Amino acid sequence: MKKNDVIPLEITDITGQGSGIGRVDGMAVFVPMTAVGDKINARILKVKKNYAFAKIEELVSPSGRRIEPDCDCYTKCGGCVFRHISYDEELKIKKQRVYDALTRIGGLEDFHMNDIVGGEYPDGYRNKTQIPIGRDKNGAVCMGFYGSHSHRIVGTGECKLQPDDMNAIAKAVRSWVEENGVSVYNEETHTGLLRHLYMRKGFSSGEVMVCLVINGDTLPYKDELVKRLTDLDCGVTSVVINVNKDKTNVILGKTCKTIFGSGMITDELCGLKFNISPLSFYQINHDQTEHLYSIAAQCAELTGNELLIDLYCGAGTIGLSMAKNVKDLIGVEIIPEAIENARENARVNGITNAEFMCADAAKAAAELLKRGTRPDVVVIDPPRKGCDASVIESIASMSPDRVVYVSCDPETLARDLKIFAEKGYITKNVTPVDMFPRTQHVETVASMSRKP
Ligand code: SAH
Questions:
Q1: Dist. CA 309 → ligand 1 center (Å)
Q2: What topology does CATH give the domain 6-66?
Q3: Would you tell me which CATH number, out of the four given (1.20.1250.20, 2.40.50.1070, 2.60.40.1500, 1.20.272.10), belongs to the domain 128-269?
């Protein structure tokens, strides 16, 4: 088998990331955007020692599990990977991905695997979008999403994962750019002004923040932009500029300037009000977050007497949603704006038993251990790369009765649960929660108890 060969292939399996697998003489061939049961002619793209990558050259006989993808951009932009199969099928694949990671990478055996919690609305759920702005090969302004594993912008009128309001706002911003001749960013030459359109919506409050990420300090025609956006009737309550003059793939810079409104959104989650600044993390699927937090709360088994540590707490949302059921809460987070939000969020909700530390999780955990802090329960919700081993070491040394791990990456979760197991923490319950329908991503809550 070599590059550019076209071979007949039957898809017999699928990875958790949504790539179909066919086999040739025992060698796995990965073909994205296929379904189990597809018979295809596959064009080989790359051959490794024990496996190969291919793409569909021709769909000879489609699997009965296929559905018609309902987005023009599907397979072009890097967002969705499961639009060609039913949502039920997707949920099964995601649950299996979590199970496989925990057993194969994590070496876990005796845990209880709950069913995956699927989203009621697999479309229109994203409360945040970041749309790159550039030019297409004909020089026209192009806004959309990056192609899979690339920095080429795939222009799209709209995205099904985000609410219609955001699509309407993107359209208005595009007209404003074109009609005023505002310059757009070119990644290669690091010139031009507009880099990204970033939006966030409070699904409970209806408030929308629009943020333009710019390679400069000021935005021309900004009053006109604000007028266009507020005239839209899409709930725009804030317009913000984010300054990012660095030659980097990181979307947001460190400085935000509010040009209209409060500069943040307020939303409600689990019966509490939350202020969320542009630089603070906020879970992107409102309804599924409420499920996620309630599962995390069940795992925490709080009685009202506990000291709870919420590590990687963002704007304080998980810990504050549990605050009335604990004696004391300590939240830790590295982003200063998020910690400011967390303190303010405690105040606006009348929560007085919460303290927040702005620090790196590893340093904070070591510091808390040194102080002799004895938490009963620790909740951790790290970014995709998971926890530093030193964080796990410090948590285990503080010997909480229970640890609740909220994870957006099954593979790093599995790696970390294995380390926890070595430190005497046994994984009991695992619940996948689909926060990101139609994409490859899946969230998981794992509860651990200290070995008696
Ligand atoms: N629990 C929150 C946030 C989870 S996202 C919620 O549910 O909304 C992960 C958070 O970890 C982000 O807010 C990120 O800023 C923070 N973070 C990333 N690296 C960190 C580190 N080394 N130390 C502390 N916090 C970190």
A1: 13
A2: OB fold (Dihydrolipoamide Acetyltransferase, E2P) (2.40.50)
A3: 2.40.50.1070
CATH numeric code, 89-120+285-450: 3.40.50.150
356 C-beta closer than 6 A to ligand 1: no
Query: Residues 6 or more apart from 100 whose CB is under 8 A from it?
Result: 16
State the residue for tokens 């749309």: 131
What separation in angstroms does the CA of 161 have from each of 148, 180, 211?
Answer: 16, 29, 19
- Which active-site residues does the annotation give? 408
Residue 176 Cβ < 6 Å to ligand 1: no
Ordered by start, the domain boundaries in the chain are 6-66, 89-120+285-450, 128-269
pTM recorded for the entire structure: 0.96
User: Which backbone phi and psi does 191 adopt, to 5 degrees?
Assistant: -125, 165
314 lines ligand 1 (CB under 6 A): yes
Query: Could you list the pLDDT tens digit for every one of the 452 residues in the chain?
Result: 899 999 999 999 999 888 999 999 989 999 999 999 999 999 999 999 999 999 999 999 999 999 999 998 898 888 999 999 999 999 999 999 999 999 999 999 999 999 999 999 999 999 999 999 999 889 999 999 998 888 889 888 789 999 999 999 999 999 999 999 999 999 999 999 999 999 999 999 999 999 999 999 999 999 999 999 999 999 999 999 999 999 999 999 999 999 999 999 999 999 999 999 999 999 999 999 999 999 999 999 999 999 999 999 999 999 999 999 999 999 999 999 999 999 999 999 999 999 999 999 999 999 999 999 999 999 999 999 999 999 999 999 999 999 999 999 999 999 999 999 999 999 999 999 999 999 999 999 999 999 98
